[in-house]
Amino acid sequence: MAAPKKGRSASAQSRPGRSLALILIAIAALTGGMFASGHTTPRLGIDLAGGTSITLTAKNEPGQPNAINKTNMDTAVDIMNRRVNGLGVSEAEVQTQGTDNIIVNIPKGTNSKQAREQVGTTAKLYFRPVLTTEVSGADASASPSPSASSSSSGKATDKATSSSSAPATPSATATSQGRAVTDALKADSTPSSSGSPSSSASSSASPSASAGADPATAKLQAEYAALDCSDKAARAKAGDGAKPTDPTVACGQNSSGQWQKYVLGPAEVSGTDIKKAAAVFDTQSAAGWKVTMDFTSGGSKKFAAITGKLAQQQSPQNQFAIVLDGEVVSDPFVSQALTGGNAEISGSFTQTEAQDLANMLKYGALPLSFKESSVTTVTAALGGEQLHAGLIAGAIGLALVIIYLVLYYRGLSIIAIASLGVSAILTYVLMALLGPAIGFALNLPAVCGAIVAIGITADSFIVFFERIRDEIREGRSLRPAVERAWPRARRTILVSDFVSFLAAAVLFIVTVGKVQGFAFTLGLTTVLDVVVVFLFTKPLMTILARKKFFAEGHRWSGLDPKRLGAKPPLRRTRRASAPVDTKEA
């Protein structure tokens, strides 16, 4: 039974070249991918490469004069941080300044336009019933037929429900627009026992029907009649100051790219009722990218109630508008109550637009509205000096480690230096690739993390070498000493690296901004230490143990038994027999 076991062990020891080939192939593949992608250097953070600094000033909401406070400002900073940083390693900085300003620093190389939209968008989402709608402004005259005003920019589903919408005919004059608003508001506030909107009974009412309308309705009529959604300035002011509990006007684009204006009822569901949002590519239809939403339990009940009510109405009052920051992004129609607790926003989204919208819905709406006070370019002069000083410190530290290894371990230092070189190559290549992949940016704390990793990596070599020396001191030859030392050293290395990685993970979770760069780099280099020790250091040591220079314990090999104080091997000796006297015999 012993012979097969010995054969398997010898076979396993005779193939260290496989591990070396594997890691060399991985290095070659990663390096080739780095050059193929065109990103041959790590992306630098704002403190090293400069970037864009945006100052946002908070504005009080209508009816909420005391909304600007420390709690809301801190909440806004947290939401902006999560929106921009995503995984938290892109190194965008978001911090308050004074009582009503937020400073956002975006590193060079980041899409600053997209980041500005992420931080500046309030992302206040409401689901409002559509009371009336028509093509607006110049688009109305360009519309070939009334059916062009039918909005089909989105749909709502509960995984099984779909229907089609009848077109809405636009009004021709301001008087008929006012009558449409009045009738729509009556329909929204007056329940219909027959299931049809009460506006259908009053569609032939005279223009004087709106003359006695209350001031709020008259104001809404005037806003709707004057609204030209083809004008950007008019779109920005549409519904400005309206409360969620009040009817309002809004603008949105239909599937034909035409601008439509709407009269919308009070908000029935808000963005706070959304539990989860995600960007999904629809492979079952030509819709392309869409945003799916799952509601909370309370939101599901509200959504089922409003869709059940709208299903009893006629077009366009069987539609609800999904309103994001005052603009209608989708106006799906409803044919029955949707009780599945989910919905989707579909339309002419690109992947980036869908992901941005899902990101904003997922992380929530900002508690305040903000305006850009200033946008400036940040230079990297100071950071460059600090980086230069940090690289000098790292080079000095690396030189001291190499000098120590050469003086103390002599020939074994070749293995350690080669392993440090492999670890450095892997670290550099991965940092360069992670920049475009997940937005990783190398800042000064990240450089510190890489310098600290030199000590962690060297510590693993020292543990392995000392275990080998212990076995030689016990009187074993080098090849058995390497194989016996490895299981004990491996256990110690794994425990040590696990503790380091756990510390890095905790630091990454509980901190934000630049400190996360330090934690991420420390965690990455700790994982690479395990890879290098298992796939490079140990196989290389096994191969060199077969060489005469190391196997015979040359005085410069670092494994000289005499210098290590090795015990002589135990041997049995025969007791000498007494000499025989031939004369007596």
Main beta sheet strand tally, sense and closure: 5 strands, mixed, barrel
- Termini separation comes to 51 Å
- Compute the average pLDDT: 76
Shape by Cα distribution: elongated
Work out the helicity level.
40-55%
Low confidence ranges? 1-12, 143-177, 190-211
How do the strands of the widest beta sheet line up side by side? 4-6-5-11-10
Percent strand: 15-25%
Describe the structure.
The protein has 585 residues and is an alpha+beta fold. The protein is built from 18 helices and 13 strands. The protein has helices at residues 2-13, 16-37, 46-49, 70-85, 112-120, 138-142, 174-189, 215-226, 232-237, 297-310, 351-363, 381-409, 413-438, 444-473, 478-510, 514-544, 548-551, 561-564; strands spanning 51-59, 93-97, 101-107, 125-135, 248-253, 259-264, 269-270, 274-282, 288-295, 320-324, 327-330, 342-349, 369-378. The strands form three sheets. It has a five-stranded mixed beta barrel. A hairpin with a 3-residue loop joins strand 2 and strand 3 (101-107). Helix 15 (478-510) packs antiparallel against helix 16. The longest helix has 33 residues, at 478-510. The two termini are 51 Å apart. Residues 1-12, 143-177 and 190-211 have low confidence and may be disordered.
